[in-house]
Amino acid sequence: MSSTPAPAARAARTPVLLGTQMLFNIGFFAVVPFLALVLTDDFGLTALAVGLVLGVRTFAQQGMFLIGGVLADRFGARRTILTGCAVRVLGFATLALSLLLPSPQLALFITGTVLTGLGGALFSPGINVLVSDAEQRRPPSGARSRASLFAWLSVAGELGAVIGPLVGAVLLGWGFVVVALGGAALFVLIGVFLAVALPRRTGSTRQQGIHGRWWSLGDRRFVAFSTLHAADLLAFNQLYLALPLQLTRAGAGPDVVALMFAWVSALTLVLQLPVSRWCHRVGAARTLRVGYALSAAGFVSVAAGALAPLDPTGRIVSVFVAAGLVIVGHLTTNPTAQGLVPRFAGTLPTGSFFGLLSTCGGIAVLLGNVAVGALLGWEAAPALAWVFLAVPLAVAAVWVPRLVGAVGASSGSSLGR
Asked: Which pTM was predicted?
């Protein structure tokens, strides 16, 4: 008897995954954006110390994706997703507990931030595995161009990223403890829902009976691909680091920074699906080349604005242009890169491949942000930070399409290539 699920089951699974991604982001962005405020106001940490704590949290998530992916291969996506939900509930509850004790406990709060990251490192690779599986089972589109499920996942996640801070801001009126407990309660509900909605036997038929291993590390082409593609996540993270700092240097207030975030969210919601259809039409190699080039052009525009004799308004405009180019580049490259994972994996399970792709990005962000922060403070060379960000994107634009072209449809097992 075939192990392929019935069509009705396949149709029901995709909305569950997309809805789950939106709920994940609502719960995440309802809590995490307010961590810096608590660390500053309740614990009296300096900006440097706050950055370090949040950097550790980010690395606990992005840096541990490879482990989460291997566990998804070994124990199944469903089990790792549910475990990730439980760990994030524990993390949010720990954040609340650190402030409920007679005196605020910084060590406990930091433990909670790390646990929230580890929870994401467990459930996100599992979601990617299931979305990839659903994408592979979709019927051929023929001559039509259609958005990939990873593009839909991006839209669903962005909706959650827009709604989450609004929910958190409302709950913050009752204190951060209520915000953290509200996030924990939401992830409890998500976990219960997924325990019922996700089939107990997940993953494609090609993955059944193959135990999870560090398959991705044995594929030299995929390691190179993941390393080069890390430039995309580093560029994307500058929407929250370097570009807001540049706006502040140009004399912009918090309202202008918030407007930039709204601009980025609007572009994501409006353009992700049309961009994905274009990507489907022109092919992965050309898509990636264009996407990396767009992001690089964004940083070049900021560099030009920093060197040119522009007034503050002109510099603010250059940052908005850069943010637009970077986000469109990310909308182009990120779903495409995730969609290529099954081609690299061949007949092997995809969990460790998705994990390595994200882990390389997490390492690039951790190290790259330190370098960007240092270069931004070098007043003698105001464009150097932006050139530093543009160069790896330009390198990726040249080399990644060659790697993609080298991965043929008959790749099979990619181990040791």
From this structure: 0.79
